[in-house]
Write a structure and sequence with these properties.
about 40% strand, five-stranded antiparallel β-sheet, four-stranded mixed β-sheet, about 140 residues, about 30% helix, elongated, alpha+beta, Aldehyde Oxidoreductase, domain 3
C-alpha cells in the first residue's frame, strides 16, 4: 500500500505496475483528469492545494480502511497539487485483488472517501478570466 500527495505529473502506468501481482485476477485504474467544462463554465485549468501533513495522513487512513474492508493491500494512490491544465491527471488510484468486484468496490470507496475527507482544495480557472473555489463533494446540477 502506498499513498502520496505530490507536486509532479502523475504516471498511471507506474501505479498500475506497482500493484500488479500474479495473485491478482483483477487490476483497476482510476485516473481523474481536468475536464473542459464544469457546471456549464468553460474551464482552462485548476489549482490544487492541500494542507500537506493532514492530507497525507488522511489519505493513508483511507487506503488502510479500503485494504481492510476489501481484503487487499495492493493499493497505490497519488493526488497531485499545483496548477494543472486541461487533460492532466489530478488523481490516480490503482487497486489489484484476486476478484474484480472487490477491486472495483475498493476503487470506488477510495475516490468517494478521498473527495469527502482529504483536505485538498481546487480553484478552477475559467475562459472568461475568473476563478472560483469548488466544493469537491458537491453534486453537479
Amino acid at each position: 500500500m502506498r499513498s502520496a500527495v505530490v507536486d509532479h505529473p502523475l504516471d498511471p502506468t507506474a501505479l498500475l505496475a506497482e500493484v500488479a501481482s500474479t495473485s491478482s485476477g483483477a487490476s483497476t485504474l482510476f485516473v481523474g483528469t481536468v475536464r473542459r467544462v464544469n457546471d456549464g463554465k468553460d474551464v482552462t485549468g485548476i489549482d490544487y492545494s492541500a494542507y500537506g501533513p493532514m492530507a497525507e495522513a488522511e489519505l493513508a487512513t483511507i487506503v488502510a480502511e479500503a485494504a481492510a474492508r476489501f481484503g487487499t493491500e495492493r493499493i497505490a494512490v497519488e493526488h497531485r497539487v499545483g496548477t494543472l491544465t486541461l487533460g492532466e491527471a489530478s488523481i490516480v488510484i490503482a487497486v489489484s485483488h484476486a476478484r474484480r468486484a472487490a477491486a472495483m468496490d475498493a476503487q470506488r470507496y477510495l475516490i468517494e472517501e478521498i473527495k469527502k475527507r482529504v483536505p485538498v482544495w481546487k480553484r478552477e480557472h475559467y475562459a472568461d478570466g475568473s476563478r472560483e473555489w469548488v466544493d469537491p463533494t458537491a453534486v453537479p446540477a
